[in-house]
Structures are given as C-alpha cells and as structure tokens.
Amino acid sequence: MEANTAVEVGRLSRGPARVIGVARDTLAITRRNLTGLIRVPRFFVFTIIQPIIFVLLFRYVFGGAISVTTTGVPYVDYLMPGIFVQTVAFGSITTGISMATDVQSGMLERFRSLPMARSAVLAGRTVADLARTTVVLVIISAVGFAVGFRINTNVASFVGSLLIVLLFAYALLWVFSAVGLALKDPESAQAASFPVIAPLVFASSVFVPVSTMPSWLRGFATYQPVSVTASAARALCNGGPTLSWVLQSIAWTIGILLVCAPLAVWSYRRAV
Amino acid sequence: MGDAAIMVEGLRKNYGEVVALQGVDFEVPVGTIFGLLGPNGAGKTTTVRILSTIIRADGGHAEVMGHDVSADPVGARFQIGLAGQSASVDANLTGLENLVLVGMLAQIPKRLARSRANELLERFFLSDAAGRPLRTYSGGMRRRLDVAAALIARPPVLFLDEPTTGLDIQSRTELWEVIRELVRDGSTVLLTTQYLEEADRLAGRIAVIDKGTVVANDTTTALKARLGSTTIELEMGSEEEAIRSDALVGHVCTLANEVEGKTVRMGCVQGPQALIETLRVLGENGLEPVNLEVREPTLDEVFLALTGEHPLDGGSGPASKDGG
Ligand SMILES: Nc1ncnc2c1ncn2[C@@H]1O[C@H](COP(=O)(O)OP(=O)(O)OP(=O)(O)O)[C@@H](O)[C@H]1O
Ligand SMILES: [Mg+2]
Q1: Domain at B4-224+303-307, CATH homologous superfamily
Q2: In this complex, how many residue pairs, one in chain A and one in chain B, have their CB atoms less than 8 Å apart?
Q3: What is the spatial order of strands in the sheet that B157-161 belongs to?
Q4: Closest atom of ligand 1 to CA, residue B42
Q5: A46 pLDDT higher than 90
Q6: pLDDT surpassing 70 at residue A139
Q7: Where are the domains of chain B?
C-alpha cells in the first residue's frame, strides 16, 4: 500500500537518515519562505527603501554637519559600514512579523501535526531571511558605492565586513523569531520590535562617533552590540585596530544566539 | 492494537481558568466515520488538537492506530491527516505548491507528492486554480484545499474539524462523497460538525459533547429514536378540529405530542411515514390542515433533549415563553 511509504520513512529516521530528514524539511520550509518573499515583495521593499533613505539623508543632508575628522576618512566611508548594521537591524524585525503571521494563519498548527523535523520551522525561517538580508546588503553596498563610498583596505576585508554583519544579523533573526512567536500577532510583533531596535541603532556609533555624546551615554553607545558590530565592519573597511572589534562582535553574536535561540524554541513549543 | 483506530480515555484539558475538556471518552473503530457534535465551545476543536498532537492533554489517554499521542507523537503523526477548523494554508503559495509542501513535510517523495497533488486538485475541482496563490482563492476554495492537504499522505486516520463550514451546497455534497469514498477504502474519519444533518448523513456513530463532556454516544439511528427526530406541526381550522385531529392521529407519533390552540404538534421517529399516515387518517375523516410544517430537530433541540438546558444560556433558568 502506498500509505505505508510514509511509515517506512518514519522508521528509517534515525542516525544519518534523521540528519537528511532535518535538512530536507528545512530546505522545504526555506523554499516556501523564499517563495513568499518573492510573491509579496513588500518586505524586500521595506528593508531596502528605508536604509537607502538613511544613506541619502546622512550623506547629503546631515553629513556636512557631522565631523569625523578624527577617523581620518570621509564621512561617507564612516557612514556606510554603520548603515550595513542599521539595515540588518531594522530588517530583522520582519522575521518576527512573518513568524507571528505563521502562528495566526494556522500554518504552525499544520506543521505540528506533520511528521516533520520541528527544528525545520525556525531553521527554515532564519535561513530564508538570512538570504534576503544578504541580497539587501549587496544592494545597499551598491547604493553606497554610487554615492561615493570607497573601501580603504582591500576587497577581502570588505567581504569580511559584510560577513561579520551577516553573522550578527543571523543572531537578530532569532531574537525576533522569539518575539514573533511569543506575541503571535504580526502588528504587535512589529510594534514591540521597533522600541527595542531603535535605541540600539540611534544611541550607537552608526551615524556619529560616540565621542560627541554625553559621557553617561558613551559607555553604552560604545559597547552595545550594534555599535560594536558597526565598529568591526568599519575597521574592516577603513583600517585601524580591527581584531578586538571583530572578536567583540562575534562574542555578542554568540551571546545573543545562546540566549535567544532556546527562547525562540521555547516560544515555538508554546505558540499553538 | 485492537480494532479501534482512535481511542480516547478520560481526556482533560484546561486553558488557564477555562475548563475545555473534563473527561472525554470514546472509541472509533477502523474504517468508520465518527461524528463529534456540539455547540460552540463544547471542546470539539480541543479534542481534535490533542488527537492530532498539536497540544498536549492535561490528563487522560489517547491513541491513534495504537500510537499514544503524548508518548509517541511522531508515530501518531505518520497515521493522521488534519484539516483544522480554520484553513491552515499559505496564502502566498499556489494551490499546487501548498499541497506539495504538506506532502513533502509528511515525508512522501516529492514526485509522488506532486502527482497526488494534481489528482487531489482535480478531485476537489481546483485544477483551474492550481497555479494561483491562495490569496486569490475564495473561502470555500481554501477550505477544500485544506481538506485536500489533509489527504496528501493518504493517512489511515483523518481529522476534519467542521470541514463543510463555509462550503456551498454543491461543494458540501461533493465533500461528503469524498469522505464516504475514503472510508470505503479503509480510512477512519473523525469529523466535527454543528449540523446534526451532516453527522446523520455521514457518521455511523455520534458523540454529542457539551461543556467538555460526552453527553451521548450512540449510533445515529438510536440517537434519533431517543430524540424524537422529526416534528410535525398541523395548524387546523379551529381549536375543536385540533383536539379531534390529535385524538385521531395521536397514535401515529407518540413522542411529546401536544395541542396548543389550533396547533397539533407531534414528535415522530419515522418522519416521512408518519407524515403520510397522518395525512391519510385526517383525509379519511374529512379534516384538512390549514398549514403544515415538518421540522428536523435542530442542534438546540438535541441539547434540550440530552441535557435539559439550552446550550447558549448555560441553564440560566426555565424557558419562560411557553404559554400561548
Ligand atoms: N487557546 C485557548 N485559550 C483559552 N481558551 C481556549 C483556547 N482554545 C479554546 N479555549 C476554550 O476551550 C473551550 C473549548 O473550545 P473548543 O475550541 O474546543 O470548542 P469547539 O467545540 O471547537 O467550539 P466551536 O464550535 O466554536 O468551534 C472554550 O470554552 C474555549 O473558550
Ligand atoms: Mg471548534
């Protein structure tokens, strides 16, 4: 009987077969999520337009008033690595919205009744959104180059800066997956995410050097994850002391993942 | 593994303060259709969600094809297909993509999933819409696709939570036919519904559930007999005519007959036969009703008969507007 094929696969799902099963399910979910992103380009547009506006605003409107003479590079070279981090930070909010939509639409409920790898739902979401983030980051880099951004180190370091930002982005995707699963409602997920991410992006070294900030803010603004990652990306693009920033950024990424991945898994279990 | 496809024993579930299930028991033999009937909030969906391993019960025991749903949920998942109360489909994927996705996640090979998806789209009259995103589907089309998704892995046990809600009459009849076919091929179906008629047409056995407990569990025929299924209401020309008619035809139906003004009301087990007999007797005696009404029992009446209270006012007191 054909009905037994499913049962057979189920019996086989131990050891290496199980790993293949998880990979296959993750791939199926990833593909489903990417199809959604392509069919509803709203999220793409949202995550691209907004940083482009910031690039133009800070490059041409505020840039003239911001002094970065201490850094030894033109403001646009200071700005762009920060914009990379800002882009992924705001962009990751959409992950929470998507996750909450899946709870609301009953998709998670259906997934739960299927003999699939549970981890595939979260893995497939974060992998698909990491792919989206990569595309957005490449587009934003192109916009940067168009408005005068230049790499002061070398191409390999520049690629390294994108990678460190993507690594950080992946941690944020788990943060907002957890938020979306906990709130179970796309509007609330969006509303709750902005106040978390906005202070991190604005009270940071993304747009202006922290040396211009009041002393009570400087400590936070220097060592919080968005700033640290912006500093790491900036060092990789512009030169200067690099390793310490890169290590601090990786430490933040790992720390956030260690806290938020279990939190997301826990919320996933309780989401339906 | 006995003969039971589904076995439920003392199932309990609370949502915080709300008691959703307080000890539900029933068994469904392999190859049968079992109807779970009850008003809003009775606990039908909760029962289905526990059986399909979506949520865990707080107490009790449930098995699907011999797999304990809490101890061996993965084993149970290989045995079941679910069409939940709200259609769980991806609005951005096409009909075909939705079905293939569910098929793959049910661990059937992609090729097989694709060919079955096409068969199902045809069977549910969705072939023309197969390539369109679900966003563009009507409510009834989504519902049908959701049921199709439940069938893609050809699971031996199917849970259909109010599958015909929102379907037009034609789609409803077609879905009933699909369900009957499945059972003919050996599947077991647990179906929840608000419509007594639907349960009556499809299910061999019905459990009526109210406030988280099973208040009746019987074959449809036995239940109907107990509930005095059909009400025949005769409005006569005058009060004496009504009294005379009641004396003449009272023996035809014997369940809760009453005369109220010019109206004779009778509860009948065999509706059609009773109606023919009633009209024959009245005709022979030169009596003719001014108005004639035949009513199948509503779910409300089933509850009234079974629990002695109206399902919606939670037994807040005796019905007050009985007098004429
Ligand atoms: N997620 C939830 N949180 C809190 N209470 C819930 C939840 N789901 C169901 N309930 C409660 O549990 C009880 C049973 O609900 P259930 O959905 O099982 O009813 P139902 O018989 O399917 O009703 P309907 O015919 O309206 O679909 C209701 O009182 C409901 O309010
Ligand atoms: Mg329900």
Answers
A1: P-loop containing nucleotide triphosphate hydrolases (3.40.50.300)
A2: 94
A3: B80-83, B157-161, B188-193, B33-37, B205-210, B213-219
A4: 21
A5: no
A6: yes
A7: 4-224+303-307, 228-296
